[in-house]
Design a protein that fits this description.
- There is one protein chain.
- The chain is mainly alpha-helical.
- The protein has a domain at about 55-225: Orthogonal Bundle (MetI-like fold).
- It contains eleven helices and no strands.
- The relative contact order is 0.14.
């Protein structure tokens, strides 16, 4: 039985990682056709960096993703702090309202947001796209931060206040150091969700606010090109680098905390 489970695990890993490896390998294909191998070449990376329109969509995605992730982490932290520390009347209703976008289909949210912006006569732009992405990233950030804050000793802020710490000092010297990892996780998850979103971006984006996923999707209608593979390979390597850096930092902190003091 254990051998069967091990083989199933191997097949699952192969299924997950073979497409990623294929994207990286074919980004070096000298042939324009992805169905034939024409040798190793770096020309598609050069084409990628010379494609001004594609780089502009990448810049737009970064602006929207970072803005939405920052706002989601900030508002999510405040919401999680209030929901975890204060059990006021309507607590469950507020929590349900915050988490509702997780179960509502994105196409419904996109249509609703477009209706609201049209009714309020708000022109579609990067600003409306950030608001749309905030709707889908805020529940994720709030859940992560609620879990982190719920695990903390609730008497720590009170102890800091008794020792004369101001609310800002309590946050910077007590809450922030203890929830730094959760804040980083909330930001990265929110950024990833925003950066890869297509549905909400389609409904809330205006002229000149095309994101990278929308641009790639439009290019895929004519077939996968080595330039898109090169872009995918760079994004994969960047993701691996960020995850590795965060993992190494966490590992150092764990090892430093487990090292006995003389």
């Amino acid at each position: 039985m254990d051998r069967v489970v091990a083989w199933i695990a191997r097949l699952v890993f192969v299924f997950l990682y073979v497409p990623i490896v294929a994207v990286i390998v074919y980004s070096f294909n000298a042939s324009r056709s992805t169905s034939t191998w024409g040798g190793v070449s770096l020309q598609w990376y050069g084409e990628l960096f010379r494609d001004g329109a594609l780089l502009q969509t990448l810049r737009t995605s970064l602006i929207v993703g970072i803005s939405a992730a920052f706002l989601a982490t900030l508002i999510g932290f405040l919401a999680a702090l209030g929901l975890s520390r204060y059990r006021l009347r309507g607590h469950r209703f507020v929590l349900g309202a915050v988490l509702l976008p997780l179960i509502v289909p994105e196409i419904v949210l996109g249509a609703a947001l477009l209706s609201v912006f049209s009714f309020a006569d708000i022109r579609l732009s990067i600003f409306t796209m950030v608001l749309g992405h905030l709707v889908i990233t805020l529940p994720l950030a709030t859940l992560i931060l609620m879990g982190a804050l719920s695990s903390l000793d609730p008497t720590l802020p009170e102890a800091a206040a008794d020792l004369g710490a101001s609310p800002w000092q309590t946050f910077t010297r007590v809450l922030f150091p203890l929830t730094r990892s959760a804040l980083l996780a909330a930001f990265l998850l929110s950024f990833t969700t925003s950066f890869s979103n297509i549905v909400i971006s389609t409904f809330t984006g205006g002229v000149g606010s095309t994101t990278l996923p929308l641009r790639v999707y439009s290019l895929l209608k004519t077939g996968v090109t080595p330039e898109i593979n090169a872009l995918g390979a760079l994004l994969i390597l960047l993701t691996i680098g960020i995850v590795s850096a965060v993992g190494l930092r966490q590992m150092r902190r764990i090892l430093a905390g487990s090292t006995p003091t003389p």
